[in-house]
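DATA SHEET
Item: assembly model
Revision: 1
Owner: S.N.
Input lines:
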Amino acid sequence: MIARLACVILFSLAMVGQNAPAPRSQAGFRIAGTIVDSLTRQPLPGTRVSIFGSENPEFSQRVVADAVGRFEFSSLPAGKYTLMGSVQGYRSQGYHQHGDYFIGIAVGPDLDSEHITFRLVADARIEGTVTDEDGELVRNANVQLYQRTHETGRQSTRQVFNAVTDDRGHYLFSHLGPGTYFVAVSARPWYAQYPNSGEPAPAPEDAPRIAEERARLDIAYPLTFYPSAEESSGASALVLRPGDRATADITTRAVPAVHLRVKTGESAERKDGMTIQGGFPRLSQRIFEGSIVPVMSSQGFSPSAGTYEYTGIAPGRYLIEMTSSGGKPGAGWYREMDLSGTVEIDARENPPLASVTGTLTLEGAPRPGGKTFVVLTNRLTSENLAAEVTPKGTFDFNEMEVLPGPYDIALNMAEGFQIKDIVARGARVNGKTLEVSGGSAQLGLTATRALGRINGTALRDDKPVAGAMIVLVPRSPTANLTLFRRDESDSDGTFSLREVLPGEYTVIALEDGWELDWANPTTLQPFLKNGTPVDLTGEAKLSLKVQVQ
Amino acid sequence: MFTQHANVRCNLAQEPRTALCSCRVLLAILACLVFLLSSPQDALSQSEEIGGVETGSPPHPASVEKYTLTGTVVDAVSGEPIRKALVEIYTNQRRMTFSDGDGRFQLEGIPAGSYSVVAQKPGYFNQQELLRGGAPPVEVGPKAPPAILKLSPEAVVTGKVTTAAGIPLEHVTLNLEYIEIREGRRRWDFKGSAITDEDGHFRFANLKPGTYYLSASPYTPLAETFLESNQPPKTGFPCMYYAGAADLASAAPIQLSAGQQAEANFALNEVTVYALSGTVSGYAPNQGVGIQVFDQSGMQTDRGAQFSPENGRFDIHALAAGNYVIKAFSSLGPNQPVRAELRFHLANDLHNLHLALEPSPSIPIVVRTERQAVPQQANSNTFRASGGARESGPPVAVRLVGAGPGIAEAYASFDNPQSPQTLSLHNVEPGRYTAVLDAREGWYIASADYGQNNLLADDLVITSGTPPLPLTIVLRNDSASLAGVVNVPDGYASQVTIVAVPERGSKASPAVTYWYPPRDKSGPPPEFMLDSLAPGDYLIFAFDRTEGLEYSNRDVLESYASQTVRVTLSPGQRSKVALELIRTSEASN
């Protein structure tokens, strides 16, 4: 069962429209069991336990577990229920929750829903202190928490929370699930002062002394990973088990700041000598698997006409992107390079960003009432870019401009529409993927609501299996990541894969698959031959049996 | 009120360390900041010296003798040296260095002179930040002694919020109000919010010495899942003031001295909470409506209202029983604010409240002048409030200063720029105010009345729904003046604040001026001068400092009664007085 908000709402709407639940007069089923700590197996009295009707989320009941951790809901109509629990030290969680998925409780004749052992996973936490190279506390530092996951089908390490250090340089991340984490800190030295063009020139005899004084303040902290690494490859992982309390003190070291000079060649109008034409470049660093994290550049000024200088950046390798917003459209550029000392680059020599525009055609149904967005997800940097679709069906990514590279395309807030066909001019299309190069690209997207649904049961030796990871694998999986669907089998082994675009697929069920990189074809390959092939046409609803591997 | 993202540990909203934006600093265009840090730059006024050379005038001649400034940065409370403090001095150039492990610093190549020197260090306030008059200048020259730069450690308030049974409560918002004494008056200054962590702990740092009030906002546990979120809570925790008080009147102030670490814990009782709903009328179609609920003490609660512009309906959940004021704000267009407020008592779910938005009352100000034949002012410009006068500004400045938290100050302004003599206080929110009146030079406030109320003696109370009356001010020009000197101990070089407190009414503004002891004692000392004084009786004080001194409060001055001089000034009289210095600050830093 899946627990995403959008899905639950869609599902409930669909149920109302299609088959409103028949009145259930024989309401007399129970959900009962014991709630325990996942590690110690000690009962957790006082746990708030809730159930919600899967088909009717408005139906809910809540009880508090007794002194031996027992809970019971009675007089329930047959159906499926979401079971949730929370208590001090255990954040709210579903039964056997894995990411967005968990085991739904099936209730009805011949179903045992009264001997549940609900293992709550205790919250873990990470806290620590940020100090500088002199051992002084760093206040107001931005601390980022990254978690390594496999939820997107391949290993990714993404930012889950951020925090700001207090006056003791202290930060705290609480209510964390078990897993592998990394901590990074981004800060500006409190005494940092960057030069700008308004400083009066010192007297010649004072110049060396003043230059030396200013250099001491012209410093920056690099993005620093626990414990004191300036590259994510040197970051130490914090592997948390349920209930762990980890300490991660970070030392960050001030280094001379980079001065990045960008020659634009434009003799921009400078009424007061202070205007920076075209805004600030976006600076980011690649970390972990290649996702990019923005890095602050503190300050900019124009030392001479047509040249802009940006300071407050620590040396390192950066992706520099300058969009053309505010300037000439299509003039955006990017460059990836090592920065140290004073670096001058000429904007005209840098490769261009792409301006992506297009039209969206919605097949067979009126367009959704609310705003709809086309979302491009960069496979390498994990960045998401969204462009709103106009009433005429057009969209453009000119506002942000697009870094060349491979993108998955999807719709957001599209009320059940999925992209069916993609044509492109100025970019290559492969399945549901787009390879964007520099310059301009026009897309023609066709979306449909004619989507199917695959229901099934996960079985081993003809017996239903709860908690299996179900994966719907499209043909040419690598090019069609957006067509994947997943679920977790419920207590009666059933699952449901929704909003499936017509086509050929294979459904696999894996007993222990939650850490699997299912987006990797090599990883998938051994499981496909024992999967169940499906050929979905139109808005069919299929029911099938899948062997658990 | 700030709400902050869950899971982000929250500090007190950081005050910018300096308010200064010189033209040089403006060059720094701060954009693309992933987050903002307070900038350590420029804690002192970048004085005219720098402005003068900005356009590239030649540097000072090389023949100027240069000296080395040495000094120590110390903790004003403990006297301990402070390491790695940034020390800046403004000569014709900004110069800077850090203190070493013993707090010592030196800067070479400084021309002889008297300079403002500023030390900065996180966790400390410098004197420029704490003292209105700033810090004494530092001498650089052949015989100048080493400078001692004192930094005053910040105070911190920490605490824990639990249920009555001792279970920590997470995500409770704490609000801190600071009683700032400015111009001798108390003002409520919202210092920020903090949110409890999973252990129920909160922390406010970066606090100046002074008086604070701390409260825990009403709290209802967060809906644990999105599935539960449409079920209104049945119980919650009402607002509580430190220490365990239900309202501000019975709350205990937290007195913080420099460097103090105070602890303030809350044990909240779970009570039944109720829902509130109603409608708002009178808003323009495309303008938003803000709805806020205030408790009986005037503190804003963090209960957000859901508002549907389609039908004007609002819904508020989870308020404990009690007395509240609900306020709605909107705008009909530029400079056309509308508001509504309603007091209510909540003892059960309450529906069908109605808030009709209306323009806030504007109080017209009628100024009358009574010109007397005063020989020494014969050359002053003729002024008539009713017309024809050449004066460009208003004849009198009128401010209303809120007497409690959550009340904005109101300033009088012109109704019509073409007719600068017509003054009004616009959009005055209901509440209790002290009227602060300043007459143009040469005139004094003879009387100020609002209906039957004498505003020189009483507060001004504006109630909702009552049509405003005119505020009538009478100005006279037969003012008196007072000059004098202060007897200070040997070696005393700091600024002295002279305060003349009129005895005619407790809300009449004291007159204030400053005086510096002479450096050269050989000649006659310079005199201070207070003029444009209303005739009458005065108590005159000469304070060494007035930071934190509520000198407009007669009760506070009572403790200095034995050190005051009483004078009676008749119309037109020029009087002289000799004062003894009053040392107020021995206890504090």
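QC remark: Chain B touches chain A through 58 residues (CB under 8 Å).
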